[in-house]
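Recall the central idea of this unit: under ordinary conditions, the amino acid sequence of a chain determines the structure it adopts. In this exercise we apply that idea directly, starting from the sequence alone.
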Amino acid sequence: MPQYNPPLRDMKFVMHELLNVVDELKLLPAHAEVDADTINAVLEEGGKFASEVIAPLNLSGDAEGCKLDKSSHEVATPKGFKEAYKQYVEGGWPALSCDPEFGGQGLPVLVNQCMYEMMNSANQAWTMYPGLSHGAYEALHAHGTPEQKTTYLPKLTSGEWTGTMCLTEPHCGTDLGLLRTKAEPQADGTYKITGAKIFISAGEHDMAENIVHLVLARLPDAPEGSKGISLFVVPKFLVNADGSLGARNPIFCAGLEHKMGIHANSTCQMVLEGAVGTLVGQPNKGLAAMFVMMNAARLGVGNQSLGLTEVAYQNAVAYAKDRIQMRALSGPKAPDKPADPIIVHPDVRKMLLTARAYAEGGRALATYVALQLDKALASDDEDERRSADAEVALLTPIIKAFITDNGWIATSHCMQVFGGHGFIHEWGMEQFVRDSRINMIYEGTNTIQSLDLLGRKILANNGATLKKFGKKIAEFVEEEGTDEAMQEFVNPLADIGDKVTKLTTEIGMKAFQNPDEVGAAAVDYLRVVGHLTFAYFWARMAKIALEKKDSGDPFYTAKLATARFYFAKLLPETAGLIRSCRAGLSPLMEMDEALF
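Accordingly, the structure predicted from this sequence is:
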């Protein structure tokens, strides 16, 4: 069975040495009293929960899966899941970064980010049950009526109730303008909602006493397309005026999807048969509230693959040090053994270092974005809030798509390290690969993220937000440009920065002539910009490691070696990606459809 050790040392490095989060948080009134000891203590305890409580359930939960009783529409989660969730709630973990007004602890988002990374490493399928509640909480917190907030937010904050997002329908995935679920207004101000939803993660389960569904539907007089979508809160059990649970609402699980991975999470086909709901936000303005959920979910999905990358790397390293096969080409490295540990072989090292570099680079980026989100939510400076919010918007599709692409690459590499054993369930590696694959698909496929980044976040404002982030990179390059020891990092960073500027301009000019050029370039382009962000954080981490390499702490030696690997072996991928971007639309579209 795979093992998991929370990477607390690297988390502390990112927070306290790279990003100096305590100094940044002290400028935010809501977090002025937060100190490093508090953050560290919370994460140490959280790491114990992840590694000791839910990690041991990952392999067994995958094998057992969920079971639907079709007569009652109830879903049973795998053995131990319900008990683990009870511990989670009793420990106060759901409330970490929630609003104190509704019973939350009010800790920074970045603390919750690190907690969820550890839980995703330990057991992604289990973590999705409480994880989906965050999107529902955020949407209601931002757009709910006072009554909805009073009714639902304290229970979502405590974890007594969980939440879902009911968006997708059988005939429409990302194109929500096609949805058909109907909402009929009632005399008492509620709505009766009828329709079918699919792929609803944690849509039905036995871990919490109520499930709060946020459902997209159309009012009778709604305009066609995305401008006619409204959002409704539809609880599994209706809530009485005194807060107690009332009648069963007719929103049911009609079937469980049989999936490639995340078997222990109930992916439900939901049927609404006149279910009672209340409107969230304004009629026909559901997309605004939905995007609050979607953006939270997209950051969460990137975090899922970050967690899987880390745990796959840990187990592959342990195996590579133990497994002996063949001799090193340069001669025996373990002459006392019949063969050398496979970690001596260059390509095994390459696979391991790829996973490590993507895990540590992803952690730096994800924590940075969480810090910007804290600023966007809690700063008393309107300009700072606006600037931080714009940067979060720019980097969200990169976190979702680049980190999940990397997670697929890394988990596959780590399975390969195990050879044939990696293909066997009991080692756990093939589960990491299967679980990671969904992260590139749901909450907007990675192609959708790429179109969002290039079309909406960059070209739509003539690259203003990207230029602002690029200015931070340019300032760092200028500051370190005279340091001889930093040349191996800042020179390629400056180079990729210049190339991104030129490439963006080139694609923008092509897109004026034919908008399909954006679709042709977007996926490769996002990966190039993803590498730009990783190169920036890796260069900054290398600077710290260089300053402390003589401290005697091997952590900095390893950090510096991983930075050098990233710049030498992974960043050069951008050359081919840029060439592919520049090849444009023609190679994709010139063949007649009939020839496919």
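The longest strand covers residues 267-280.
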